[in-house]
Every structure is written in structure tokens, then in C-alpha cells.
């Protein structure tokens, strides 16, 4: 954490102006900012070519066999999308981020929120952070296909992940300029997309609280990805990013932040995005830091041409820190070899490369098992949970040598 003195002083223009202007700027209801997806309109706006994506309707995953081993970052055009409803169209000219709550140094009700425009935010000091962006349910289908117990939710394989260089302003910069009460503990981030309705229940706008400690550490209010403006599907004009944490924490189309002196709740930390069912107790905490996972840059059941040496490539990542090493098995887990690994960027994933010498023709099962610098290692079995979160077990990847 950086002390308040390390932050640039508020400028007379920009945020301080907006903060003192306060309630006067808060005029537009969320409805005015959001054009709700009409019936039949696509939930995802960017093209989803089948060579790059598996399309699940409002969600789409990246195909690992489309990943170029020579490209470190995931291009936003190829990044997975996870929408609870549909991508809204938001005009940056009318966009507002409203910051309020009793956790501000001068408490503000919703009606008195500090209202920041897109231009206000873009004038603030820019920071770039690379993170592995991943859905909590990534790998969910393997609960069924590898462990024989299906979990409910989108049946992702391993493609609900990507490495992105985000550009934005640190949330701590914004909060310190507005003024934070030292007793603040929790921040509720709410999206401007349509309310989430499931099974006849309207759960309201997608929203999830996170601790002030994360806000003061590395949380970012993001306007750019890989050097360009965010795509609409990924939160344009502004999204939150909580690096290394469950994807649901990174609220897209961010409409408000409520800073509170009390712990806050929403269905996204009480009903979902916690471990339930299986052998879990009933009082598990909301999920935060992502586990350790890995994937081969190969199609499922890929056929590889027989050669004296077949090069296998892939990536491993962890929400808790860098990957320390990756072990590979080409015989279904009987023997293991440590691979060559390379991590280009702090916060990003680690690429691995394995030279498979004289593979025999026929069917094989490839395994990659990663360990991070904190000592967390992919298990061979992931304990079942009803919503299929955090499938972090070593995946048994079938291939054929022909
Ligand atoms: N407003 C809003 N934010 C959201 C979501 C959403 O549906 N609405 N989905 C969340 C989930 S579950 C994930 S995994 C990530 C996905 O981000 P992406 O679609 O940009 O890859 O956004 C999170 N933020
Ligand atoms: Mo997610």
C-alpha cells in the first residue's frame, strides 16, 4: 500500500472539482445510460468466429487451440465473455460513476453521490496492470467429464481466461481524492447492465462487494485493454478490475461504488461465488483469490503428426502470484517431467514448453500440473461444489499421435 502522501495532490480541475460539485452532477438515472437489449438482440456484440470461440449465447469461451504460442497477451477480440444479461450500449458522453456511502470521509447518500464523468476519470493518472482475467467457473465441465459429478452453470472447458494489460486509474487514487473514512470496510460495485432475472426472480443489477483493503491495494478503474479502449462486451466505457480475483469481482459497465463502514452483501457473494454443496459447510466465505490452473494450447482430442520431437506448449496461472514450475506427464500421470517456463510479465501467466521425444503412434493423455510461488499446486481432484467453481484439478487432455 502507498501512503496518502505518495499520491499526487488533487488538481483544481478534474476530480476535486467533481467531488465538490457533488450532488449537482448527479442527475441521470441508470436507465438513461443503458439501452436494454431488446428481445432477439445478441447478448454479445463482438464477432465470435467458431475458430476462436465456443459460443454459449450470453457467454463465449476462447478456444485454446486458437492461442498463438508467440503472443503473450490475449487480444480483446479473442477474450472470453461472461454476461449475466446482455452487453449494454453506454454513451461515454452521458456515462457517470457515482461514489457514495457512509465510508467516505464526508458521508454521502446515493442522492448526494460524487458523480464522475468519463472525462473526469480519464484525466486522472493512468496506470497499466497486467492480470490473468478468469471466470470463477472456468473448467466447470470437468466436474462432470473428469470427476463424474456435473455442476450447474455454463459448461466451460478451460477457455474462460485471458491475460490482459489493463489501463486505468487506481481506485485508491480516486478514493483518496474523494476522502475515505478510516472505518470503511466494504465497497459495493454495481453494473449498469439490465437486472439479472433467473427462475422468475429479479436479483437486481449485477453487483458484488469487495474489501476496502483490495481497493487500496491494486484495484483499477479501467478504460483500456492492450492499448485500446475497452470493447463494449468487456465493460466500455469503464469497468472495475480486481487483479488475481474471481472474475465476478471485476464489474463491467461500472455505475456506482458504495463505500460502507459495514460489510455489504449481494446475491453475488451470498448465493453465488461461494462454495456450497458437496462436502462444504454452510458458512463458507465469498470467493476471492483465483486458484492455480493450466492448459495446453491444443484442441480437445487433437491429432498430432508423429515426429521425432513433438513440441507441446501451454500456459499456467494463479491468482496468488507467479507460477514457480510446471510438470508434464505424457503417459497419463505415471511419470512427470519439469518443463521450461517463461513469464513475460508480472501479474500475467506463465508459458510452458515441453519437448515430447519419440511419441508412439496412438492415443495418449497429457497432463500439466502447475505450482505457484506460494506453494499452491494443482490437485489431482477438485472437491465438488454445486455451482462448479474453481475447478483447479490437473486436466487429463486426450491426444492422438498419427
Ligand atoms: N456488470 C457486469 N459485470 C460483470 C458481469 C456481468 O454480467 N455484468 N460478469 C462477471 C463475470 S462472472 C465475469 S467472469 C467477468 C467477465 O468479464 P469479461 O466478459 O470482460 O471477460 O465479468 C464480471 N463482471
Ligand atoms: Mo465469471
Describe the protein.
This protein is mainly β. It contains seven helices and 24 strands. It has a five-stranded mixed β-sheet with strand order 5-4-15-8-11. Strands 6, 7, 12, 13 and 14 form a five-stranded antiparallel β-sheet that branches. It has a five-stranded mixed β-sheet with strand order 17-24-23-19-20, with no helix packed on it. The N terminus is likely disordered. Bound molecules: the ligand Nc1nc2c(c(=O)[nH]1)N[C@H]1C(S)=C(S)[C@@H](COP(=O)(O)O)O[C@H]1N2 and molybdenum atom. The site of molybdenum atom has 6 residues, from loops.
What's the helix and strand layout?
Layout: H1 14-21, H2 30-33, E1 53-55, E2 59-62, E3 81-82, E4 96-100, E5 114-117, H3 118-122, E6 127-134, H4 141-145, E7 161-170, H5 171-178, E8 186-191, E9 197-198, E10 201-202, E11 207-211, H6 212-217, E12 220-225, E13 228-229, E14 239-241, E15 254-260, H7 267-270, E16 292-296, E17 302-304, E18 309-318, E19 323-329, E20 337-338, E21 340-342, E22 350-357, E23 362-372, E24 397-401
Bound molecules: the ligand Nc1nc2c(c(=O)[nH]1)N[C@H]1C(S)=C(S)[C@@H](COP(=O)(O)O)O[C@H]1N2 and molybdenum atom.
Amino acid at each position: 500500500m502507498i501512503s496518502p502522501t505518495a499520491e499526487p495532490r488533487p488538481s483544481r480541475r478534474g476530480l476535486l472539482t467533481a467531488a465538490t460539485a457533488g450532488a449537482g452532477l448527479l442527475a441521470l438515472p441508470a436507465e438513461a445510460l443503458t439501452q436494454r437489449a431488446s428481445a432477439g438482440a445478441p447478448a454479445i456484440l463482438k464477432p465470435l468466429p467458431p475458430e476462436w470461440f465456443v459460443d454459449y449465447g450470453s457467454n463465449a469461451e476462447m478456444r485454446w487451440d486458437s492461442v498463438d504460442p508467440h503472443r503473450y497477451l490475449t487480444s480483446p477480440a479473442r477474450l472470453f465473455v461472461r454476461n449475466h444479461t446482455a452487453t449494454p450500449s453506454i454513451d461515454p458522453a452521458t456515462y457517470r460513476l457515482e461514489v457514495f456511502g457512509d465510508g467516505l470521509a464526508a458521508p454521502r447518500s446515493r442522492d448526494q453521490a460524487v458523480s464522475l464523468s468519463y472525462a473526469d476519470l480519464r484525466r486522472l493518472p493512468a496506470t497499466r496492470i497486467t492480470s490473468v482475467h478468469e471466470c470463477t467457473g472456468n473448467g466447470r465441465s470437468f466436474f462432470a467429464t473428469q470427476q463424474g459429478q456435473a455442476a450447474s452453470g455454463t459448461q466451460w472447458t478451460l477457455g474462460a481466461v485471458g491475460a490482459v494489460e489493463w489501463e486505468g486509474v487506481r481506485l485508491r487514487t480516486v478514493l483518496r481524492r474523494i476522502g475515505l473514512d478510516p472505518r470503511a470496510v466494504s465497497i459495493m460495485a454495481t453494473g449498469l447492465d439490465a437486472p439479472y432475472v433467473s427462475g422468475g426472480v429479479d436479483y437486481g443489477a449485477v453487483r458484488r462487494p469487495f474489501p476496502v483493503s483490495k481497493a487500496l491495494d491494486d484495484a483499477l478503474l479501467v478504460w483500456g485493454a492492450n492499448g485500446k479502449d475497452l470493447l463494449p462486451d468487456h465493460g466500455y466505457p469503464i469497468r472495475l478490475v480486481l487483479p488475481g480475483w474471481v472474475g465476478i469481482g471485476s464489474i463491467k459497465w461500472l455505475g456506482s461504488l458504495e463505500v460502507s463502514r459495514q460489510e455489504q452483501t449481494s446475491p453475488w457473494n451470498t448465493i453465488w461465488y461461494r462454495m456450497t454443496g458437496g462436502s462444504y459447510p454452510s458458512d463458507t466465505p465469498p470467493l476471492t483469490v483465483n486458484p492455480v490452473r493450466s492448459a495446453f494450447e491444443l484442441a480437445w482430442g487433437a491429432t498430432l503428426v508423429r515426429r521425432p520431437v513433438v513440441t507441446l506448449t501451454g500456459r499456467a496461472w494463479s491468482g496468488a502470484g507467479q507460477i514457480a514450475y510446471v510438470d508434464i506427464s505424457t503417459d497419463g500421470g505415471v511419470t512427470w517431467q519439469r518443463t521450461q517456463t517463461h513469464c513475460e510479465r508480472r501479474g500475467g501467466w506463465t508459458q510452458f514448453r515441453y519437448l515430447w521425444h519419440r511419441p508412439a503412434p496412438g492415443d495418449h493423455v497429457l497432463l500439466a500440473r502447475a505450482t505457484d510461488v506460494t506453494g499452491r499446486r494443482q490437485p489431482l481432484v477438485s472437491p465438488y461444489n454445486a455451482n462448479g467453481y474453481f475447478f483447479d484439478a490437473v486436466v487429463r487432455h486426450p491426444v492422438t499421435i498419427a
